[in-house]
Amino acid sequence: MTSVDKAIHWDPYNPAYFNNPHPVFTRLREEAPVYYNEEYDFYTISRYEDVQAGLADYRTFSSSRGDILEFIKANNPVPPGVFIMMDPPVHTAYRSPLTRFFTPKRVASLEPQIRDFCAKSLDPLIESGEFNFIENLGKEMPMRVIGMLLGVPEEDLKTVQSDADAKLTTEAGKPMDLTEHTFVGAGFEDYIDWRMKNPSDDGMTEMLNLEFKDETGAVRKLTRDEVVIICSMLGAAGNETTNRLIGWTGKVLAEHPDQRRQIYENRALIPQAIEEILRYEPPGPSVARYVAKDVELHGVKIPEGSSVCMLVAAANRDGRKFANPNKFDIQRERLPHLTFGQGFHACLGNALARIEGRIALDEVLNRFPDWEVDLDNAYLTSTSTVRGWETLPAYTSKAKRRPGGKKAAQAAPQANTPAPIPGAESWKLTMKTPMGPQEMTAHLVRKGDALTGRLDSPQGSESISHGKISGNTLTWTVSVTKPAPMQLGFEVQINDNALAGHAKLGAFGKADIVGERISS
Amino acid sequence: MPKITFIESDGREHEIEAQTGASVMEMARAHNVPGLDADCGGGCSCGTCHVYVRPEWRTHIGEPNEFEVATLEFAVDVEANSRLSCQIKITDQLDGLVVTLPASQR
Ligand code: HEM
Ligand code: FES
Predict the structure, then answer these.
(1) H-run or E-run covering A449
(2) pLDDT tens, A198-207?
(3) Do B39 and A102 touch (CB under 8 A)?
(4) Is pLDDT at A404 greater than 70 in this prediction?
(5) How far is the CA of A286 from the centre of ligand 2 (A)?
(6) What is the distance, to the nearest Å, from the Cα of residue A237 to the centroid of all Cα atoms in its chain?
(7) Cβ contacts of A340 on chain B, cutoff 8 Å
(8) Contacts of B42 in chain A (CB under 8 A)
(9) Given this model, what pLDDT does residue A384 score?
(10) A256 with A373: CB under 8 angstroms?
(11) What is the CATH number of the domain that holds B82?
(12) Domains of chain A: which residue ranges?
């Protein structure tokens, strides 16, 4: 190390590290195995041995406030059933009966359906030689597969939805879009209510009927609300992560055509290739914990009450564990990466994610053996929970358009902020979240006592549902997927050109909101 | 070097010379014994390295820890003598160990 080295700095929100966090992770791991970030008040742990031991030691590194930095800071009550945010024994009381849905055997039975989905999605694109790892596979597949597992049939969902719409004359439930969103919102809750009354031999009925011993020792079924929130947690945990795995598969193998060729010729290499992709570019680079008692590591005292980010992505490239760690090598000695976590909270859906990743790769190779990715038209995002591709166009040698030929309109989606809605009043809102203020713009359209419109935020644009006007009070909901799928319930009072109120953040408490009118 | 015998569900036997300090799973893979997927590579998180261990070996091997017990829930056809082979470290005392493989890991 030379004296000109700048002090190490890392936080999950800094775009400087989105594209390639590995150099800063290497510095953290080698120079500051316990690092403290003053600005956001959290620690990081980055060596393999430390992350592995830390994740296993739930008595010190607790999940009781969640495993996402923002949630730990917010410290809102954890709703019953959300076992990812609990420690044993309550955690295990919930997790254990649900394991049956995620066994390697059970998920293997979905193989024909998953292959079928890939075929439907990719076959129409063979001719053109152009496809998109995210748009055509990653975005839709994981949510549909969870739907398959629970037996949530898309036809049923539509029936249930129209029943619900017919019943709810004043306000229609936000249609549940299985492709992009997840199991949140009125549509999904209606489905569960309907399934409770109309049992079948599907996974959802099985979940509604399973008996388990809760933390009080009582044997009981899950409540309706627990089922709702467990399903939304499954969507949160299994959707964007698996999507990212599919994206990284496209990106990393495009950069290693010789290894891709080996896989193409010998499909038995697929499982180890997926493991190496998971190690090399983990879809979730970091898992957070609440420090439940003082602990000292590498001479640094981490006090009780702190938050710690366990940098899985750094641990996966620790040279103390993996030889030549920065080399992508599908033939490397098989050692456990930490991408699915470790210990009691180790990913419940690991078998499901693996089978999805393996099938996606196999089916892509069947149709597009030699793709290149078009990074000029691809777009990468990184949050405190996931890192990966939002869109990743790919081309085979027979495609007419070659990578680099920019499609102007489609470049970087974050740039094309949607245009304001004609006739809408626009408000600049500031939401006070645990991680500091978040700005967003609401475009509101009044019609009688109904309110429609859209909410634009750095996370994307979402349309407003359940909008109502009563006097000066406006209420509406928005379903978001980041940092976790949830419904935000807004309630604000308007006073001329200013507004104040709050948003209910799904099951995770409230955030105050202030706002000012931009246009009327 | 301790000897370990793997018996496949159809009765086929594989006797191998095992390395102390490695896990039973690692040795099976190193000697191409079929039937252990070991998806997670020994992380005790996938349940696809499931084997049956004869009861007389239990005292030498010790009881499964809390993580192994939890992960065994992923495995197929679990019995009282089921273990995850990635969690069994080979010692000289395990010379002569016989483990039986389930018909399938999934
Ligand atoms: C490549 C895709 C995936 C990755 C990288 C991933 C990663 C992880 C990680 C790191 C954890 C541990 C979190 C912690 O320790 O706090 C976890 C837990 C979990 N994952 Fe996954 N996951 C993936 C796919 C899935 C899928 C497909 C599902 C199911 C639909 C799923 C369901 C869960 C659940 C329910 C937990 C909580 C387990 C617990 O707290 O006991 N995951 N996942
Ligand atoms: S190899 Fe995965 S649990 Fe043993």
Answers:
(1) none
(2) 898 889 999 9
(3) no
(4) no
(5) 22
(6) 6
(7) 40, 43, 45
(8) 334-336
(9) 82
(10) no
(11) 3.10.20.30
(12) 15-400, 417-519
Q: Give the per-residue pLDDT at A233.
A: 85
Q: Which residue in B has a C-alpha nearest to residue A345's C-alpha?
A: B45
In DSSP terms, A380 is beta-bridged to A389
CA B41 to ligand 2 centroid distance, Å? 6
Which of A308, A23, A284, A19 is CA-nearest to residue A9? A23
In this complex, do B67 and A351 lie within 8 Å of one another by their Cβ atoms?
no
Q: A105 touching B, CB under 8 A?
A: yes
Using a CB-CB distance cutoff of 8 angstroms, which residues of chain A are in contact with residue B27?
A: none
For ligand 1, residues with CB inside 6 Å are A 55, 63, 67, 83-84, 95, 142, 146, 233-234, 237-238, 241-242, 245, 283-284, 287, 339-341, 345, 347-349, 352-353
Chain B's closest residue to A95, CA to CA, is B70
- By mean pLDDT, which of A26-40, A136-150, A348-362, A397-411 is the weakest? A397-411
Number of independent structural domains in chain B: 1
List the domain range (segments joined by +) for residue B15. Answer: 3-105
CATH classification (class only), A417-519: mainly beta
Ligand 1 atom at shortest distance from the alpha carbon of A67: 16
User: Hey, which bits of A20-86 come out as E strands?
Assistant: 34-37, 42-45, 61-62
* DSSP structural state of residue A487: E
Which of the four CATH numbers 3.40.50.970, 3.30.70.1650, 1.10.630.10, 1.10.10.10 does domain A15-400 have?
1.10.630.10
| Sheet of strand B3-7: strand arrangement | B13-17, B3-7, B97-100, B50-53, B82-84
Select from B25, B40, B71 the residue whose CB has the most chain A CBs within 10 Å, as the one to mutate to test that interface: B40
Half-sphere CA count of A170, side-chain side, radius 13 A: 7
Rounded distance between C-alpha atoms, residue A373 and residue A386, angstroms: 21
Contact present, B72 and B82 (Cβ < 8 Å): yes
In angstroms, the CA A438 to CA A108 distance is: 42
For residues A127-148, give the mean pLDDT.
92
Helix H segments across A99-223?
104-108, 111-122, 141-150, 154-167, 186-197, 203-209
Tell me phi and psi for residue A163, to 5 degrees: -55, -50
Q: How many angstroms from the chain centroid is the CA of residue A62?
A: 21
Residues B25, B49 contacting (CB under 8 angstroms) = yes
Q: Which of residues 446-505 of A touch B (CB under 8 A)?
A: none
- Contact A249/A274 with Cβ under 8 angstroms? yes
Indicate the residue type of A112.
P
Q: Select from A105, A109, A322, A330 the residue whose CB has the most chain B CBs within 10 Å, as the one to mutate to test that interface.
A: A105
Most confident of A73-77, A176-180, A345-349: A345-349
